[in-house]
Specification:
Length: 187
């Protein structure tokens, strides 16, 4: 008699059951990890673009505008998720023109929205030639499409043009603003 090595149907079904149970725990965790990475990437991109705009203003000793991108100019206030444009505003009209210098573009984000809240309530961010904001201290907040507050991130900008990132200081999974309040996404 010749004996074959292999699995019986019962053993195969039990193995598949164990794998599926393990996957049911692993998939949500990996999705949350990827969503968190996307939020952190958006936060880093915002900070680097703001810092680049500030440095460009200082280097050119000229006003520099960072605004939401729309067609060939600046878009409405809370459309930052469509990307942004940074330009030296030599003609001081707050729109990129033929005599202005386009410094860089921030690419659109794949999902989520970015909201801008600042003193003076403008749709753009302006740096003076000294690297200061034009009295526009405020914050940009990233919110996931589904409104999950564990994915919300904030970049705070002070008058001097310095940026600060939100963090989860109390360990509840939701980042807090500079005053220690949990971030909220506009509805």
């Amino acid at each position: 008699m010749h004996r074959t090595n292999g699995f019986s149907l019962i053993e195969l079904l039990i193995s598949m059951l164990i794998v599926s149970v393990m996957m049911s725990f692993a998939i949500p965790s990996s999705q949350m990890f990827l969503a968190g990475r996307h939020s952190e990437q958006v936060l880093a991109t915002l900070r680097s673009t703001i810092n680049f705009a500030r440095q460009t203003a200082i280097a050119l000793n000229a006003p520099v505008i960072m605004c939401p991108k729309a067609n060939n100019g600046c878009g409405p206030r809370n459309t930052w998720h469509n990307g942004a444009i940074v330009f030296a505003d030599f003609d001081n009209d707050h729109q990129p023109g033929p005599n202005d210098f386009i410094a860089t573009h921030m690419q659109p984000i794949s999902h989520g929205r970015i909201y801008w809240r600042a003193f003076r309530n403008r749709s753009y961010l302006k740096f003076t030639g000294r690297g200061l904001t034009d009295w526009q201290n405020g914050h940009l907040i990233y919110c996931a499409d589904d409104g999950d507050l564990t994915q919300a991130r904030q970049v705070t900008l002070n008058y001097a043009g310095r940026t600060y990132s939100s963090s989860d200081t109390n360990g509840d999974g939701i980042h807090e603003d500079g005053a220690g309040r949990p971030l909220r996404c506009p509805s």
